[in-house]
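Sequence only, no structure available. Ideas?
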Amino acid sequence: MAHHQFRTDDGAIQVDYTKRIGYFTMDEDHAHEGYELYYLFEGERDYFIRDRTYRVRAGEFVFIEKGELHRTLDTGVPDHERVVLNFAESAMVRFPLPTESGVFRLPPQERWKGEALARELIDESRGEAPGRDAMLEALLKQLLLLVFRAAAERPIDEAAPSAVHRTMSEVAAYVGERYAEPLLLKDVAERFFVSPYYLSRKFKACTGFGFAEYVQLVRVREAQRLLRETNLKMIDIAERVGVGPAAHFHKLFKKVCGCSPLQYRKGRRAAGPAGSAGEANR
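Reply:
I predicted one. Tokens follow.
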């Protein structure tokens, strides 16, 4: 496997390149404060975003909004080469964002340009030329403009890879709507007319997340939003996201985020609106 990772001095941009031989499913919880742009040079991947699975093929970009739960999975096709660009608000271009996270393809006449910019970003991040960080920001903005123009003109409305994927996407959407309520595997399975074993196994296979794990992550993501955007007390946030006693909420939040809810609130407000680039490993 070939792998290279670089972060600018201010943390606003991270470049993560991998060429992997064999099969690989991203096995970590993933959502971050910054934006993400993923480009697949070679191979084929399934990309689960929030409550939907996309089939990503060579030459396609994936744009991920801030705080969006996502994970990549094997499709049964081995080997892939990709670059992941995580970036903060400060590195964003002044151009209308896509209406939602998703998969985008450049027109044939511009694909070579997008791929060349992606390669140039990787090469620049490997060197030590003067002004490296400024050049990375300039290259990233060029690439974002290409992708966002393509998104505005011809978005890809990629269907889920299979009927099972579509059902599991419906389950994920149901969780996203009902996270404040009790969500037991057996009850959700009954609602979708499948056995708990089937739901557990297929949800993991289609999304990369265990069912209970996904419920927890959706609740924590909403808690993060409330911590950033409101002055609600911890006990009220715990109740709103369906976690229960404040002590349990504190424990779950720290397990997922690596810090307490109060530390998260203070840190996000101290950082201001710019945020920071996230990490990638897929």
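The chain has a mean pLDDT of 87.
Hope that gets you unstuck.
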